[in-house]
Amino acid sequence: MENVRIVDILEWTRGKLYSGNAMDKVAGICIDSRVAKPSQTYVAIKGERFDGHSFIEDVFEKGARSFIKEARVEVNRRIRDLSSIVEVEDTTAALADIARGYKSLFDVKCVGITGSCGKTSTKTMVYNVLSKKYKTHRNKGNFNNHIGLPLTMFELDKSHEAAIFEMGMSNLGEIDLLASIARPQIAIITNIGYSHIENLGSRENILKAKMEVTNFLDDDSILIVNGDDELLKGIDPNGGYRIVKFGFEGHNDIICTGYDQDEYGIRFKVLIHGSETEFYVPSRGRHNIYNALAAICTGIEADIDIKDIVSGVALFENEKMRLDIIEKSFIIINDAYNANPDSMKSALDFMTSYEGRRKICVFGDMLEMGSYAREGHEMVGKHASDKVDIMITVGKDSKYILDEALKNGLNCGRHFESRDDASKYIKAIVKPKDVVLVKGSRGMKMEEIVISLEERS
Ligand code: ATP
Ligand code: MG
Questions:
Q1: Whole-number Å distance between alpha carbons of 123 and 20
Q2: Ligand 1 atom showing the smallest separation from residue 116 Cα
Q3: Are the C-beta atoms of 38 and 65 separated by less than 8 Å?
């Protein structure tokens, strides 16, 4: 962390100096007592299960002498006398305030990525492209919320020329907060799906929530969106920033004109300002073309040479449990990281690229769908009905997928309440050369089925 003192934190958080010296240096911010270092400032956050305030003493014993706490909690005299402590009303809000203040010290090209699916994959592709020209910072893994984004911000340093922030949300107002911290000049919306519809009530509201990423764009800024997306294609062109649309449809600004998929990746052609360029992404799934198109648009916007954009896109590696291909006598497609109707459909479309093989899909429930649960699961069932030979569903609502698929022409399927029973069944029926797709929401832990299948030779 660069050049921050307690006095800056007092200003950014409008907090009170509870004890110590306002000129003390802040060498880093930590919220996890288990990994806190003596040089860092420990912010005591109240989480769902634990209140970080209960660990202030532990962190003090590890040598830390700088704390941010809420006024409701007292600390003992020894800690108070030997530490610099900032007192605020709400430490979670303070974490965001400090991140916002810290960001204002930098002049970096900043990219904010939101959307229903593909954020992390797009982030990686954008990173690979921007890194060709700029020293680029990005969030680790899925650090995309009101805690993860500030923690990512604190790792920004003077050497960085660009920064990428994935922005996730489950309700209105959340992306606004993240955008107010990161202030992206390049905003990307990957698509508008059904995730978190339980909280938001409609896809229009999901669009509204994602569009909050534009709340701090100015007329030099740019919004990059998937123009094939039913809702994104109709966004207001007069938002006060430029809009670039990408996709397969002819009305977009950057258009994929064709592609060819083999077992290692996808080769695809893109029409950019009247001339066609060929790209290769070493990963499967047509959805990864969309993610690559977002990265291509970002590269063009950031003045990166087209040759470097091509080589940046070619660096992509799928993250774990996202269309991971495991080759045994049969093939397992492990897409168990998470699921919503859109990514379920993408995974099914991908499975169809395995022509001439028997296709088995193993689907767990899609969670957090609220009153759309039935409709969302049925939508997947309908989409799957002509793409798979055997469907196995696990859990509760996934039965709607199976029922709808059977209604629409699927011949063979079975529902299980437990993963173990489903695993036993799949192990018994799987044959050499089969392709088995495994997918479900994070909470369904469908990877355990993958692990159990891996034991089968
Ligand atoms: P999360 O909300 O969990 O952070 P995410 O938006 O970061 O998810 P990824 O981790 O990139 O998304 O991908 C998650 C799943 O979505 C994967 O299973 C992948 O196969 C699928 N996916 C990735 N990109 C797209 C896309 N552009 N459209 C539809 N599905 C996609
Ligand atoms: Mg993600």
A1: 41
A2: 6
A3: yes
**What is residue 368's predicted lDDT score, i.e. its pLDDT?**
87
The H helix count followed by the E strand count for the chain is: 16, 22
ipTM of the shown complex: 0.98
362: tokens are 């193993």
d(CA 72, CA 68): 12
* Cα gap 127→107, rounded to integer Å: 18
Q: Which atom of ligand 1 is the closest one to the Cα of 319? A: 10
pTM of the model: 0.86
Give the containing element (helix H, strand E) for 309.
helix 306-313
C-alpha closest to that of 416 among 436, 442, 391, 389: 391
Neighbour count for residue 52 (Cβ, 10 Å) = 24
Report how far ligand 1's centroid is from the alpha carbon of 118 (Å).
Answer: 3
| CA distance linking residue 7 with residue 279, whole number of Å | 50
Provide the 3-class DSSP secondary structure of residue 95: helix
Query: Residues near 452 by Cβ (< 8 Å), separated by ≥ 6?
Result: 423, 427
Which of 129, 97, 133 has its CA nearest to residue 113?
A: 129
Residue minimizing CA distance to atom 3 of ligand 1: 338
Work out the average pLDDT over 175-203. 92
Q: Judge whether 309 and 300 are in contact, CB under 8 Å.
A: yes
Check: CB of residue 151 under 8 Å from CB of residue 143: yes
